[in-house]
Write a structure and sequence with these properties.
This protein is an alpha/beta fold and 446 residues long. The chain has a single domain, classed as Alpha-Beta Complex (Spore Coat Polysaccharide Biosynthesis Protein SpsA, Chain A). The strands form five sheets. Strands 1, 2, 3, 4, 5, 7, 8 and 9 form an eight-stranded mixed β-sheet that branches. A hairpin with a 2-residue loop joins strand 4 and strand 5. The longest helix has 20 residues. It is globular, with a radius of gyration of 21 Å. The chain starts with 16 loop residues before the first strand and ends in a 22-residue tail after the last strand. The relative contact order is 0.16. This is Nucleotide-diphospho-sugar transferase. GO terms for molecular function: glycosyltransferase activity.
Amino acid sequence: MSTQERDSNENTHGNGVNAYATLLTRPSYLAGALLLAYTLSHHSPNTPLIILYTPETMTDTAVAALRTEAKYSNAVLYPVEHLRLPAGGKGDEEGMVAERFIDTWTKLRVFEVLEVDGRKVERLCFLDADMMVFSNPSPFIFNPDNDAYLAGGHAKRLVATHICVCNLDGDAWAPASWTPNNCAHTHVGDKNGVPAVKSEPPTMGDMNTGTFAFHPSPALRSFVLDAFRETPPRDLRRLKFPDQDFLNSVFQGRWKSVSWRVNALKTWRYWHPAMWDDNSVAVLHYIVDKPWAARITTTPEGKKVAGYKGDDGETHGWWWDAFGRWEAERKGQGEVDLLATTAKYVANEDGADSEEMRAVGGGAQAFAKKWESGAKVDDGAKEGEKIVGDVKGGSEGISQAKPDEVTGNPPPGQSDFGQGPHGPILRKPMFGERGHGRVVRGGRGG
């Protein structure tokens, strides 16, 4: 971990620091993490970004790039071990959903972060690495109202934003309950509204874990990781969106909603125009295909085109604008190696494709098509039923699949590319999470 001195970050809760954290397990997300660090340092310069990373699946040059960026952005490198599912019993094969999300369980390592540079972390906010900061998110996250909530329930609580279940893209795998009327964000009248967490309909009680904040403590760490260890691996493998589904189960009744601005999914710009305001976005979440995977194109009519359906030209353009500013700054600072490494993981100006970019680009959406032919639930579970620990609830089943045509990921039973000290190493790049998936229902309220 870096020992670089950090400025105080205006923390009024206790004597420690406020901090953000993200996770990087694949070089294909390097550009996203660099731009997250760069933009956060511009808008919240005294608040460190703790970059959790897994040395065994990150290249030395990618880690070196992070270290170089930390000289300019208020970032701290924090190596962690992968958190992998233990081997299951007979017949407990690893499905393609687990293959796709094999790294996402490592996100739970953020609950192990208790200090940074020798100072206690009083408040910690996790941000996915496919996010970028447009204005200071701290007032919406680190404030007395949230402090009061997080201190209750034996301090085993989170603050986050709701998931979106509008499903205006018509994804065939989505349950019938995924409709605009059942989406919490539909009922927010304007940019200042914050929907309440409700038990009915169930979709209004579910959070998106792209952004979540908490008060770090040994007790909270044990609460989360003990639940992970005590849940049978085959039940965890059934989760369609693992870390999100799991955290929703563990923290059911234990989370409070915060402003959409700190986890603004790019689709909301056209899915929730009544709520959205370009100038109010604090943290933009680039779900599905990532902006660094492809350059922006323009139609003869002048419309910017990006994203797998072509609707994200404006928001992807914002990312490329920031990347251009970052690139110019680092070029002026003589950071030749940093720029050369990053160039490997962003789309070429000539539009040439690469495996890394296909893995986080429009091809990521092809994964969802594997669900269109119906679901398969094994181990005697009832159709539509999922289990996490001692809790059951509705979700979609998981079907087995052939090797992925986009990334080349192998079928079940052929997923390992060598054994590392902390579990199997997957050499193929993983593509990004969708970011607003269905969750299991849990019974750990409090």
